[in-house]
Amino acid sequence: xxxxxxxxxxxxxxxxxxxxxxERANEAGPVAAMPGIERFALDxxxxxxxxxxxxxxxxxxxxxxxxxxxAIASGSxxxxxxxxRTIREIKVALPEMLVMADLCCCEYTTHGxxxxxDELGExxxxxxxxxxxxxxxxxxxxxxxxIAPSDMMDGRVGAIRDAxxxxxxxxxxxxxxxxKYASAFYGPFREAAGSAPEFGDRRGYQMDPSNARExxxxxxxxxxxxxxxxxxxxxxxxxxxxxAARDRFDVPLAVYNVSGEYAMxxxxxxxxxxxxxxxxxxxxxxxxxxxxxxxxxxxxxxYARRHG
Length: 308
Fold this sequence. Notes:
Blueprint: E1 15-22, E2 29-30, E3 38-40, H1 42-55, E4 59-65, H2 82-93, E5 98-103, H3 125-142, E6 146-149, H4 156-166, E7 173-180, H5 187-193, H6 213-225, E8 229-233, H7 239-248, E9 253-257, H8 259-270, H9 276-290, E10 294-297, H10 300-307
Parallel strand pairs: 1-3, 1-4, 1-10, 4-5, 5-6, 6-7, 7-8, 8-9, 9-10
Antiparallel strand pairs: 2-3
């Protein structure tokens, strides 16, 4: 009876598994701050994609860890860059896998910020948007299905849409990190992706955790510029923002169950303080209940093993 009248269910088709791919094989391996999560070498990433697909997880979100970095993120748009190569290999092996690629510069810059810096050491919004367009078209040429800009630069969604359309990539969708907060919950990700800022922080271009109405304005701007899907990040501390977005916008909504949320839950499970399966199911259900159509989560594989 309880199952019969259940109001919300988490479907495997709603889940997206993030995947870290390292260009140098010696940089692959477990992520200490995220038990159960790894950086994959290219061949292992393809094998992991096959396993996810067989389990029913048919969407992935790629993050690249390049062999070399510089101040202007030049490796980010290389035709033989690690993300571009991974897109190609996975689409050959699994044509039906939905491949998303995170679009940002932080993994590729020596300073670790999400864009190009000006002479004062501040992120130059317009120069960064131009670079993002270059990266986006390189991902499209590699065969990506969805571009996911996570940089939070102003005007980047419209510029990326124009660049993709000009490159005959009208079929490539944009999943915009529209309400991305300057959160403490990103710490483990920065270890996984090697993307910690060398100085300062990202509050200049990510959102103040105190603001909710601003998130709705940011989402509205991205929708107007052509975003196909919009996202709230992080997840658990911002369920109110997710709910408000669901009430206001009739577009697909994504939520990112981020690395810090994953790590703290795994720590409690490892200490025996929580029943793991029950806690994970409850967390993922709360995102769907709050209004998410898409849940990006490091728990995707574990959840699929139990519910597939």
